[in-house]
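In this notebook, the sequence line spells out the residues, with the fold written below as integer tokens. This is how one looks.
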Amino acid sequence: MKATAIREPVWTPSAVSVAAAGLMVEAACAVTALWIWGLFHPHPDDDGGALAVFVLPVVLPVLAGAALALTVTLIMPTLSLARRAGALWGHGGAWWWVPAMAGTVSAAVVGAGGLGFGLLGDTVGSPSAYAWWWLAVALLIVPGALLARETNRRTAQGRPRLRTRKVLLGGCGSLAALCALLLTTAVVVESVAG
């Protein structure tokens, strides 16, 4: 007996906002990873990053706009393709269609970008560079698309949808807790190892 997929709309305002929030949390993860890298590999000319506190109010609206643009151009089309592929080839609504279609969308974006740069700049990158860009774009798409898929499924099932605020606070709060844990561990190790 074949299971029927729940028919939910794809382009809902809650799905778009939750996916954009997921992208902002991804950006916070990347910045945190770079900050942690900088702690263990300091640059001699580094000023310590104190200026970042003053730049943050300017950067956040730009980051939100970029996250919204990426959501509309990459994540929501990926979600639509995943839904169509599931309906066409079976297992409609399965979560694994999202990463599969993210790879497809990523390949199209990286291929179009490579073609554009090749035509404009008369240079072509190495295949490994394109492979790394493909992986980076696919990894950028997947978490936000899965969050948007989940909020659409919850809405279709009559359950409360995911909240943008909860995604932002949960993701950034987890990062803050991770940083506090890492810094505490570093202080303890430094004091014991002396």
In short: The mean pLDDT is 83.
